[in-house]
Amino acid sequence: SVGSGRSAASLRAELDALLKITESLRKTLALDEILPQVLESLFTIFRSADRGFIVLKNDDGTLSPRWVKVRNVEGNYEPQISRTIINQVMESKQAVLSADAADDARFQDSESLNLNPIRSVMCAPLTDADGNSFGVLQVDTVNYRGWFREEDIHVLFAVATQASVAIENARLHEKALQQRAIERDLELADQIQRSFLPTRPPDVPGCRFFDYYQ
User: Fold this and answer.
1) Using CA atoms, how far apart are residues 48 and 97, in angstroms rounded to an integer?
2) 182/189 Cα distance (integer angstroms)
3) Nearest-5° Cα angle at 66, 51 to 21
4) Confidence of residue 54 (pLDDT cuts 50, 70, 90)
5) How far apart are CA 124 and CA 137, in angstroms?
6) Are 146 and 123 in contact (CB under 8 A)?
């Protein structure tokens, strides 16, 4: 229903944006194309969002921001990642909404939130096919008038679900390409090394030759 204050036109715009995200993510297997597409779409849906970033887990288990988007902010922006929020989201596999992060008792221990003028924040998990969290998708705002609402978190979670599938496919594709490149390198190395060997054994009267090469 539209009783929550969201107009029918606004809801249609969100639905259209979600459909565009789903369609666009199907067309690419390049991670560096998928990530900016996701954030661009979120900024279209959430007009009040000032910042957004995608954090992914590395092979060694550490977390790092892989893509960042900022709206109308001058200078370089280094995202201050709240480990408190990210850890909660990745462990619970549930999206988090904080209408006013500065006064949210759940995140009082977060130094990054205390040092930054973030007012409202939403964070959703990125999960693989086995249900394991491998990152998060977060948007926030510094404007008091731009607080996110309960219905917004459902939209973000829907986007994160689509993004998770696309990111996992892209990562699997990258690994397959890397494996193929390694196999081609090994095959080429084998051909080069074999080319150093004589094509037939020496012809010496009274001698027999045997060879083995690995």
Assistant:
1) 14
2) 10
3) 70
4) very high
5) 5
6) no
